[in-house]
Amino acid sequence: xxxxxxxxxxxxxxxxxxxxFYAVCMLGIFLPGYTAIPGNIDRLPIAIINDDEGxxxxxxxxxxxxxxxxxxxxxxISNKTALEQLEENDLALVVHIPKTFSADLQNGEISSxxxxxxxxxxxxxxxxxxxxxxxxxxxxxxxxFSQQTAQGMLMNVNVPEEQAQAMAEMIENTYIPNxxxxxxxxxxxxxxxxxxxxxxxxxxxAMIAAMQLVGAFKASRGKASKTRLFxxxxxxxxxxxxxxxxxxxxVAYGINDLSGDLFLPILGQQIxxxxxxxxxxxxxxxxxxxxxxxxxxxxxxxxxIANGATLTRDMMYTPFxxxxxxxxxxxxxxAYFANIYGSASVSPYIFGLAAVGIAAMLINILIVRFxxxxxxxxxxxxxxxxxEVQA
Length: 391
Fold this sequence. Notes:
The protein has 17 helices and 5 strands. The protein is mainly alpha-helical and 391 residues long.
């Protein structure tokens, strides 16, 4: 066989196609998707709450609203409500000007502060971007108030040395920012990306299993009814999910410093993850056979952006935001953020994940019902026929 003949073989042609297809898909999805960083930072919602009874608070709130690069700034809510929304990641940052801010600033004896609260149990870009924004704001405010205080206190030119030194120290400490971080994530990128890695660890395996188990389903036609074979396929997926969940959870506990009381919740979600991912990826394999993997690959790549580990829905372009609502990864990643690092309710995300799985399984049932024709089930041959018994 010549090399040109080998290149024309089915396997070689498929390999060439997949090599080009995967490269185009990955770059064609990732590069446009990640242009949202930092371009769409301004889409993040924040809150500026002014409870100050003096004049400075209102001026600062208006100035921040004008200078900050965010289009959606909540003002007419209480600090308690804003912090609750921050916990649920409905807000990216809460700026709170306390009731006595102006009085403390004018008094000069007590350092005045503004509260900046961020949630670390959120998309990577959000936590890092908010930290930079808060740092820039505080540098500007510290310089501004030090200058204002200096002008007010040093109007008298003949200030004794000791008094001048005390005034200088007071000026330096006039404004001290109060930066609060809720739901701290331990240091290390492996901790920050754990929700995404736990999810993807089972998604790829379930996608491959969908192709293999659907192949076994088709190969076994005629040996049992397609209803029974479909049930066998589901039971096998659950069985594999249990094994894969035990393995993945064990690896995560061996590397990450996780609390022991999270073992069963993580294990349970991993089992659910596998079953949902299997049914979701099996849709296209049941529908168009092995070519369904060509559809599954770009959907997988799209979810790596749409799962919310790096970008929030507010920052995503419309196609990725749309995908996040109907695919399993987003719900799984957000459930892990809430369960492992946060204190918000994990139930909405678990219910969302289960809903995707149930919907996918129902679609698969319809595909098997209407697109896979029933075959007569071959009965097992008896050990002896009736004539042999009579003989």
